[in-house]
Specification:
- The chain is of the alpha+beta class.
- It has 10 helices and 14 strands.
- Helices cover 30% and strands 23% of the residues.
- α4 packs antiparallel against α5 (211-229) and α7 packs across α10.
Length: 373
Amino acid sequence: MKRLVGLSALAVIISGTSGCSWLMGEHGYFRDRGNDYLDARQTAPMEVPTDVQNSKRLDPLLPIPRNVADSQADKQRFEVPRPQPLQVAAETSDFTLQRSAGSSWILAQHPPAEAWPLAHQFFEDNGFRIVDDKATTGEFSTAWQPLGELSGALADHLRATAPGSDIEARVHVRIEPGVARNSSEIYLTSAQRPAGSSADVAFPTRPTGNGMDATLVDQMLASLTRGAEKGGSISMLAARDYDAPSRVSLSEDGSGNPVLTVGTDLDRAWTSVGRALDHGQWRVEDVNRSLGLYYINLAEKPGNPEDNKPGFFGRMFGHTPTKEELEARAERYQVRLSKVGDGVEVTVEKNINTVAPADVSRRVLNVIQDNLG
C-alpha cells in the first residue's frame, strides 16, 4: 500500500513539473490523433498476380469520396463541403377538399367558431343575400337569387354547371365539428328553380355533389386558402356568437348536485364547453369525445405544463416542484356532458362513481357559464 501511495505521489510530481507533455503532448502516449489523416500518402491500388486463378475482385473497404481534397491541395485552406439542405415539405393547408360517395366538403383546421364567420364572409362577398342565419347551430341559408346578381367570376363558374341559363338558386351551409379537436367540416347544398318561379324547392337532405355544389365548394376552398395565405383575420365577434347556447341555466338535480343545462345539441355543447374551459383558470389535461368528458386539473394553470414552473427568481430563491410533488398536489376532476331531452347537462365528477363536492362543482360550472356567452 505504501508503495502504491509513493508511486502516485511521484506521478503527481512529474506531471506537475513537466506539464504532462510526455503523456498528452504531441509525442505523448495519449496524444491527439484526430489530424493523422492529413499526413496519409496515396499508394498504388493492390493488384492480384496474373497467375492467380478464380480470384475475387478486390474493392476498397473505405473508398475515398470524390469531393474531398486531393494530395496537392492546401491542407490549411481546405474546407469540408457542407451537406445539401433537405427539401422542406410544403406546409399543410388550413383548408383541404374531402370527397366521398360523389359529394365533397371542406375540412378546416380551425374550430367551428372560427370557420363559421369565414364561410359566412365568402357568401356575403360574392353577392349572396343571407336570410336564415343560425349562428348557434352553425347554419345559414341564402335567398333565391338569379345567377346574374352574384359576383361576375363566381356567376360565370356557376352558369357553366347550371342545368339552364335562366335559373335561380339558393344555398344552405352547415358547419360541424371535425373528428380531430379544433377542426371543422363545411358542407353545402344548393337548390335551383326556373327564374321567376314561386316553387319552394327544398334543399337536399345531404350534399349531392352536383355541378353547382361542387363548383361552390371549389370556389370557397380557393377563397379560404388565399385568405389563410395572406394572414386573413377572423371576426372574434362572429366567433363569439357561433354556437353560443340560447339558454344556459345553473340549477341542482334531485340530490342537490349543481347541474349546468345548455340549450343546444351535443356537438355544439361539446365545442362551446371546450372553448369555455380553454378560457378558464385551470388546465385541461385530456379529453374523451366518445364519453363526453373533459379531464381538468384545478391545481395547474391552463396552457402548457411548462408554464406552471417557477420563474428565474422562483428557481433561485424557491423550490422547483418535482413530478411526485406535482402529482401530490393535483386536484383532478372530470366535466361530463350528457344529452338530456332537447339540451345537454354539464356536471362535475371526481371519478366515474363519485360526484365532485358541491362547492367544487359550482365553482367550475360558474366559470363555464361565464365563458359560454
